[in-house]
Design goal:
The protein is built from 25 helices and three strands. The protein is mainly alpha-helical. It has a domain at about 130-270. Helix 9 (about 190-205) packs antiparallel against helix 11 and helix 16 (about 425-435) crosses helix 20 (about 485-510). The radius of gyration is 25 Å and the shape is globular. The protein starts with a helix and ends in a 7-residue tail after the last helix.
């Protein structure tokens, strides 16, 4: 999900030039209309986040490159300022509450109000997260950003790269200050989180400065640029080595020392229940991720019911294929080992995996009009995760097309370990990442001329990931999984998301230990222990996020069932999907209100 958010940030920047020009008369005071207000807040948001703007680089041709040598302000004070801005934005938005808004404007008002209310409600928990962790901590994101986002295409880019490299030390100091401030409030990450973070930092700080990846990138790029003379290129690289040796490495050493100090008081308690007001914090983040009012106990019970149901369906399918078993987890493990499900462990096998994924995309694309009233203009293709990213990459992810449609959406597949690409799970993965999953929903929203700019890019995890998981189930319902093996692949993926509900709430609400969470997940999924450990430790530092997938899917299914029952023969599946997708990402509570209004109107939509 984080990679998807970064990709959306890139395309978001493409709209900022026009928005900024349009907003010159309305930057202060009450804007002329609520549409101007939406644009203004988007511009204000981007202006405070220089690293976000670097994803698009679209302001540079307009001599507006004030950001490419800056990093994010990671101080607690910056977080407090952003909190104050959210409060001011919410107050400004409510100035339009009594205006004569169109149906579309009213929906946009409700979506932004929900988002801002959630942010304002988090004021008491500003220090509760773990900004330094091995999963998505800033200590890893800063070098990753310099390596993979900051482009070096000319001498100015090289100078900006060095400037940012020099500012990493200050950013690390801000993180250390935040760690100390949080610790004074009794907010300390679990022992295993601190240990894993220190291990990951060693990979960055271990090599000598000349061999450090941050220096190697600059050295490679400046030697490829003809406008940089050899002597100047050498000077730039020498400066980078000096910065790494005298600034960056000492900064990370300070951070490592700070983590070592925290270890003295750290415990092995995994859940956020241990934090001050930890139970309230978990309810807050669970609401933010699921966009519902479900309690932790309710989410836990939903997970248990779903796992029981899914395991029952698996047993039926194993019997159907002639391999009956009472243990569906063991059955899935045996299925993955069958020669018919494996690809050759060589480049030919990798090429065949990509070809098979593309063939599935092409097959489904041709049939999309059967279930959806609108199809994106931008196509979607499958590519291998770049080799230099494979080691730390997820098994698969999706990047949306640019706003101008000049490139397709891309479904990236990690082919480092061919054993992870069993044939019976390939159709499910394709439906999730490409069509009718992420590409269909995100490309349609980005291409929309009816949604205000902020609604094309604002993401709510329960909607985004819930739709992708719903797409897997829909594909099974309409016959896109022709064999029992394909259907088992879909159920395996759904079971994984259901187990997450149990484990996440177990950790944070029921005070499970890390070991109990790991053992439970292995027992219910059959996943390798190394994979489960990585998953559980992710849930520890990102509480509630893993619950969004299954809750989102179940809510979309429930709304569809409600509409079908209420409308009877007037129910149109294509129209229902159009209603869900045309509005872009939004909280499930708001989607529910829209579906109810659609039902009351007999399946017709207000504008």
């Amino acid at each position: 999900m984080r990679r998807l958010l970064r990709a959306l940030a890139l395309t978001l920047a493409l709209g900022l030039v026009a928005a900024a020009v349009f907003l010159v008369p309305t930057l202060w005071g009450k804007p002329w209309s609520i549409d101007h207000f939406f644009l203004r807040e988007l511009v204000f948001l981007a202006a405070d986040h220089p690293m976000l703007l670097s994803y698009g680089r679209v302001l540079e041709p307009y001599d507006l490159d004030y950001y490419s040598d800056e990093l994010e302000d990671l101080s607690l004070e910056a977080g407090q300022r952003e909190q104050a801005r959210a409060e001011a934005a919410l107050q400004g938005l409510r100035a339009f509450a009594d205006d004569d808004l169109s149906a579309s404007q009213r929906r946009s008002y409700e979506i932004l109000e929900w988002f801002l209310e959630q942010q304002v409600a988090g004021a008491a928990f500003l220090q509760h997260g773990y900004p330094v962790n091995a999963f998505d901590g800033w200590q890893g994101f800063l070098p990753d950003f310099l390596l993979n986002v900051h482009q070096v295409n000319d001498p100015g880019d090289a100078r900006s790269y060095l400037a940012r490299l020099e500012k990493v030390e200050a950013a690390i100091d801000q993180l250390i200050a935040r760690l100390h401030a949080a610790a004074e409030r009794g907010i300390v990450p679990p022992r295993f989180v601190l240990e894993r973070t220190r291990e990951g930092m060693a990979e960055l700080t271990g090599p000598e400065p000349a061999e450090n990846a941050l220096v190697a990138k600059l050295a490679r790029r400046v030697t490829e640029l003809p406008e940089i003379e050899e002597g100047r290129a050498a000077a730039l690289v020498s400066r980078a080595e000096q910065v790494v040796a005298t600034s960056l490495l000492p900064a990370y050493a300070k951070l490592d020392s700070a983590l070592a100090t925290l270890l003295e008081d750290a415990t092995s308690d995994a859940g956020v229940w241990k934090l001050p007001d930890g139970e309230a914090y978990y309810r807050h983040v669970l609401r933010g991720h699921t966009t519902t009012a479900l309690t932790p106990d309710e989410v836990h019970a939903i997970g248990q019911r779903e796992v029981e149901r899914i395991h029952g369906e698996m047993r039926r399918l194993f019997a159907e294929r002639g391999t009956p078993t009472e243990d569906p987890v063991a059955g899935l493990q045996a299925l993955a080992r069958e020669p018919s499900q494996q690809y050759p462990h060589d480049d030919e096998g990798r090429a065949q995996i990509l070809a098979d994924h593309q063939a599935i995309i092409d097959e489904v694309w041709a049939r999309l009009p059967e279930w959806f009233p609108r199809i994106p203009r931008s196509p979607v293709t499958v590519e291998r995760v770049p080799l230099f990213r494979e080691a730390g990459s997820a098994g698969a992810y999706y990047n949306p097309p640019p706003l101008d449609g000049s490139k397709p959406g891309i479904f990236y597949k990690n082919l480092a370990n061919v054993e992870e690409s069993a044939r019976f799970g390939m159709r499910t993965l394709t439906m999730h990442e490409a069509v009718p999953g992420h590409h269909l929903q995100i490309a349609l929203a980005m291409e929309s001329q009816e949604l205000p700019l902020f609604r094309r890019f604002l993401t709510f995890t329960a909607f985004v990931e819930g739709w992708a998981l719903y797409s897997e189930r829909l594909s099974a319902e309409v016959g896109l999984f022709p064999t029992p093996e394909d259907r088992l692949g879909q159920l395996q993926a759904e079971n994984f998301r259901a187990v997450r509900l149990i484990v996440d709430t177990g950790l944070h609400a029921k005070r499970w230990s890390r070991e109990k969470a790991i053992d439970t997940m292995i027992g219910l999924t059959g996943m390798p222990r190394t994979d489960v450990v990585r998953e559980v430790e992710r849930y520890v530092v990102a509480p509630g996020q893993a619950c969004a997938y299954k809750i989102g899917q179940l809510q979309i299914l429930a709304l569809r069932a409600r509409a079908r029952e209420a409308l009877g023969q007037a129910f149109d599946l294509r129209a229902f999907h159009g209603l869900v997708l045309d509005g872009g990402s939004r909280p499930l509570e708001i989607l529910e209100r829209e579906v109810d209004a659609w039902i009351e109107a007999g399946g017709q939509r207000a504008r």
